[in-house]
Amino acid sequence: MQLILASTSRYRAELLQRLGLAFSTRAPDVDETRQPGETAEELVRRLSLAKAQAVAAGSSNALVIGSDQVAVYQDQILGKPGSEANAVKQLETLAGNNVNFLTGLALVNTMTGEHQLTMVSTPVHFRQLTSAQIQEYVRREQPLDCAGAFKSEGLGIALFSAIGGEDPSALIGLPLIALCTMLTQENFDVLARAE
Q: How many helices, marked H, and strands, marked E, lie in the chain?
């Protein structure tokens, strides 16, 4: 079976490459608007599955991976900042505080029509940061397409005093530990395959 990542995120593709598997990427055409009354957990689960199903609909003999992530601070969902000014505002709000990153993961088998779905929570504590530090970080990293306005795989690690959770790759946007478990349940042994 072919492996398809239902995402145009370079971060997710880079993570999946770590497993040494051949895969392709396809853009899912999914409206990511939050539904009325939808919790952050419900949102990332729904969008992860919707992305995988959207790509699966046009694929055969494939395992399709969908993922979505949001940052949650004081019950408020923080998305991608989109601009330097918004990134600075997000980081000024988060400095010195605890933030929870929720990453949804779905795997759809196009042969059986069945899917697996999970969510991984990653708590993060941001350091106290000065305005100058935040502005310099945003200038250097340009984290405009990242929920919470940081890239933990780069200089963003300097923003934190602690990272919790069970899967460090989830914070970057694709929980590889959970994905390996899902693939195994589909008889797709990551360790038995070579590219």
A: 5, 7
CA-to-CA distance for 39 and 45, rounded, in angstroms? 10
**pLDDT per position as a tens digit, 111-150:** 999 999 999 999 999 999 999 999 999 999 999 988 889 8
pLDDT, tens digit, 9 for 90 and up, residues 3-16: 999 999 888 999 99
Please give the residue that has the higher pLDDT: either 143 or 153. Answer: 143
Cα separation values, 160 from 42, 95, 106, 195, Å: 27, 9, 28, 35
- Residues marked active site are found at 68
DSSP annotation string for the chain: -EEEE----HHHHHHHHTTT---EE-------PPPTT--HHHHHHHHHHHHHHHHHTT-SSEEEEEEEEEEEETTEEE----SHHHHHHHHHHHTTSEEEEEEEEEEEETTT--EEEEEEEEEEEEPP--HHHHHHHHHHH--TTSTTS--TTTGGGGGEEEE-SS-GGGGGT--HHHHHHHHHHTT--GGG---
Is the overall model pTM greater than 0.70, yes or no?
yes
What's the token pair of residue 96? Answer: 């010195």
Name all domains of the chain by residue range, CATH numbers in brackets. 2-192 (3.90.950.10)
Q: How far apart are CA 25 and CA 5, in angstroms?
A: 5
